[in-house]
Amino acid sequence: MAAQKTQVHTTTLATLQPRLLAALGQSGFTAAELTEFFARRVSATCVQCGLRLTGEELSQVALASDADALADPKLARVRQGYCGRNGCDSYFYELAIERHHRVSWDAVLRALTAPATAEREPAVAEDTAAATAARAEARRKRLIRIGVGVGVLLVLLLVRHVMFGGRIPLLQSKPEYRVNPESVSQAEFVPVPTGAATNASRTNTAR
Asked: Cβ distance 77 to 87 under 8 Å?
């Protein structure tokens, strides 16, 4: 699908998500639709080295409190206002947004050119209610993915524990072993006469 493109400075990459969500929110998207649109239909590519950032990665950059909160060194450099590729000195990225009949390109351009703090770590522009809801939706989905991953890991560990004969506390009682009296031969319990035992003892003593 064809995309609308424009160049943006690297120092604005950290505020792309809230700016664009504010513009897209005027198109009537719901919070979930905004999150999906930005993650799948928005990208930014360095004009010099060709490094491509997805919409989801741009969201991570915008949601991070600072560069130290990002585990990916590439995204940490972007959060500081540099190209994500180590060693690239480019200061411009080409922003691409897929065409959509509900998206006003003029509104998008106005959002990108709106004044903001032009420091190395620019302040996040004021969000609309729809943009704020979209950011909350993105956080919620991330927490769900983490929770599902932890749940699957616990289930796998539990299955392995049971397969190797482990007992599940509170769910499985401790096994009790009992001898069935009927299964024991009566011959094993034939009493020995007292006199025979005494004679056998004397014989052994005499030897």
From this structure: no
